[in-house]
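Quick check before the chapter quiz. The format below is the same one you will see on the exam, so make sure you can read both the input and the output lines.
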Amino acid sequence: MTDIRTDIHTVTVLGTGVLGAQIAYQTAFAGFQVVAWDITDAAIATAVERFAGLAATYIAEVPGATAETTAAAIARIRLTTDIADAVADADLVIEAVPENPEIKMSTWAKVGAAAPERTIFTTNTSTLLPSTFMHSTGRPDRFLALHYANRIWAHNTAEVMGTAKTDPAVFARVVAFATAQGMVPIPLHKEQPGYVLNSLLVPLLKAGASLYVHGVADVEAIDATWRIGTGAPLGPFQIYDVVGLTTAYNISMMGDETSQRFAEILRTDYIERGKLGRSTGEGFYRYA
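Here is the expected output.
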């Protein structure tokens, strides 16, 4: 646990999907009280399973993590399907709901109506700008983006990106929180779709999808070419499996014709068959 000082103590995470669950668990592991919200009891039940899986992963992969510290992290997480209850005592809200502008704006309107005046609002959106949602809260000066990479305990960047209306003091508090959370803060000087990480990563993923959609090469060949040619540990379709194919679908649906064709392949050949990526044991590849 870190001893970095921060005036943020209670954190609410909205959405307990693959990355939302990671954010909630890492935050609790760092010693914060966490409320994790999702829309259904079934989603909450899945989150409980994800937290148990993360505890096992931390013991295996995080230096110093033990059965006691990982269990203590789970004990610091409270789950709820009531969004007003979730944000009632929040110093900081981190939103990780689906990458859909309408869902995000609707969620933020509810949060803005229920959260205390002191609450800071952050979105983990991967490709959309925080200024798209900031007015939904009614408090745009307290709104900004806080973006994490998948496998947060290992790839521990936290990109902090404000809008033209974000209070600089609020920005600084989020940077301090990210440090206390065990992240490496990456402050951005202006809004940029995709931040730094996804501005570099998304073109690779789109290029892989385009090669596949147009029948240039199959998944395995595309991935092998990237790995062998660059020394990278994963190819684009292996990365898609890590990100999750539902997220890939939502992003691709907002793209050009090729991206939408790829989204249709994802929907019919993978998502509708329960193949969502590593989280379900199968996506483009099968996993133990």
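If your answer matched, good. The chain is about 45% helix and 15% strand.
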